[in-house]
Design a protein that fits this description.
This protein is an alpha+beta fold. The protein is built from 18 helices and 14 strands. α4 packs antiparallel against α6 and α7 packs across α17.
Length: 503
């Protein structure tokens, strides 16, 4: 592993005083001052730094390493989605940007970071009260980490998406500046709020409609919201299932994206679902426990997750029309972890990590979020995507959530430069909200100040990193064309489909 910059985590951001009600905490004014003082140590201008050094590892090497432990037959699908365009590559390259960020200047202020805060990982979903909200919605890489790492990934994705849509460089930079200003303004606002009150700040879709000023973006959001409202378990039933001769419901196989399980794997996942119930709050444990498991299949999702085990389980309630789909996703160590904690393991259960950090970053979360592990006897055969049988590790950590929960994302390929700028402001606001809920809001607000230096710095970084992403994508594409990376034959013919929903 390449040597990375040694980041100092400020004691006040991870203080033992937060573990006790009798120990005094640092005052807000002291934390503002700490943030302002950090400008002397880590100048705001330095956040605009990016230049690949001799220490930088090949992005192809890093992504190949990340394929270790994935289902081999599914890796060509992941590669195919990543070669689609520079933005498609960036979506799947969280491991690359984490390694790059570890070499860059950092203030040492470490809230819970999303770890993969690109544009596509913000979207709609249903709150426990049944209302549609918008927030961060992918947490596979969530981990304590520098706030700058999330802002860098988000602003780079804004710039890359702008270029992909053919916008001028100034328009891309303006979108980034709007994103950073929104992040700063929300952080400053929340830093002045009572700690308890911060936890209730959220953006529902009614308020969102008032926020958006650009007509094209407003129309795209209305369409996306309408589609998201249809994404519920009852609507998924006819699409994903059919009836057997005995009248039983079964999930339809659609290789290689939806596949059946071996008997041993099915039984192991069923046991894991029972264990998952113990991680739910008592009321929701009783609600979910009122359903009966009908079927389980493996279903490929996203870009970064392709090749990891991802199951969808069909549950039936008191009637055939009363159904619930749950999704179980394999969770591995965050790509940020090695750069924050080295090789030491901080989290015993990676599924629990994802759930707890999702609940920390989101104002409201899926009430059915929980975690479990699949325990398999050594050498258990697992059905692969091509129908062959292979073996997998004996234990896999997973997190569980609703499969269909009115989820959706805003398509980026049909919006104008002004629309992208508007949307960049929305997601900048949401990222700040998440960070401020966890730690360091006053220090980040003190550090950013009221000037334009941070927005200009991140705009400069985003432009430079967009150049790097395009070069990395070209290297990745060449590796696929040469046969070094496995890829679906049709993928190279479908270039430019980077704006698919998902993480």
């Amino acid at each position: 592993m390449s040597r990375s910059v040694q980041h100092t985590v400020l004691a006040t951001t991870n203080s033992e005083s937060f573990r006790s009600l009798t120990a005094p905490t640092t005052t807000r004014e002291e934390r503002y001052r700490l943030g302002r003082d950090l400008r002397e140590i880590v100048p705001v201008k330095s956040l605009g730094t990016w230049k690949a050094t001799s220490h930088r590892r090949s992005p192809v090497d890093l992504i190949e390493e990340s394929h270790t432990g994935r289902i081999p037959e599914l890796i060509p699908i992941r590669v195919g989605r990543m070669v689609s365009s520079p933005y498609g590559f960036l979506r799947g390259a969280a491991v690359v940007q984490a390694a790059d960020s570890a070499f860059l200047p950092s203030t040492g202020i470490t809230p819970i970071s999303c770890g993969d805060s690109h544009l596509g990982n913000f979207g709609f979903y249903r709150s426990p009260e049944g209302e549609q909200v918008i927030d961060l919605n992918d947490f596979d890489e969530a981990h304590p980490g520098p706030w700058e790492w999330d802002v860098r990934r988000l602003t780079a994705s804004v710039y890359v998406a702008g270029r992909e849509n053919g916008y001028k460089e100034d328009e891309c930079a303006d979108a980034v500046r709007t994103c950073v200003h929104a992040y700063r303004d929300e952080m400053v606002f929340l830093a002045d709020q009572p700690l308890f009150a911060r936890s209730f700040n959220r953006l529902d879709t009614d308020r969102l409609s008032e926020t958006v000023t650009e007509k094209g973006l407003r129309q795209e959001m209305k369409r996306a919201l309408k589609q998201a409202r249809k994404r519920t378990s009852d609507r998924a039933l006819p699409k994903f299932t059919d009836e057997t001769e005995n009248g039983e419901r079964r999930i339809i196989e659609d290789r290689p994206l939806i596949t059946r399980l071996s008997e041993a794997e099915y039984n192991a996942v069923a046991t894991a679902l029972d264990n998952y119930l113990d991680t739910l709050a008592p009321h929701w444990r009783r609600v979910v426990g009122g359903y009966t498991l009908v079927d389980i299949a493996h279903k490929v999702v996203g870009v970064g997750s392709v090749g990891l085990r991802a199951y969808v389980a069909l549950l039936e309630g008191s009637s055939p029309e009363d159904v619930l789909f749950l999704q179980l996703k394999q969770a591995r160590r965050s790509v940020l972890a090695r750069y924050v904690h080295g090789e030491a393991a901080l989290h015993e259960h990676q599924g629990q990590r994802v759930v707890e950090y999702q609940q920390a970053l989101q104002t409201v979360s899926d009430p059915l979020l929980g975690w479990t592990s699949v325990e398999l006897p050594e050498g258990t055969p697992l059905q692969s995507a091509d129908g062959t049988v292979s073996t997998q590790p004996t234990r896999m950590d997973l997190y569980v959530r609703q499969f269909r929960n009115m989820k959706g994302t805003v398509p980026l390929d049909n919006i104008s430069a002004e629309g992208l700028t508007d949307y960049a402001g929305i997601v900048g606001h949401l990222l700040a909200k998440g960070h401020a809920r966890t730690s360091g809001a006053s220090m980040v607000a003190g550090y950013l100040g009221k000037a334009n230096a941070a927005a200009d710095a991140f705009a400069r970084f985003a432009r430079l990193y967009a150049d790097q992403t395009e070069a990395d994508h070209a290297e990745f594409l060449a590796a696929a064309k040469s046969g070094r990376l496995p890829i679906e034959p049709s993928a190279l013919e479908n270039m430019g489909s980077a704006f698919r929903p998902g993480g």
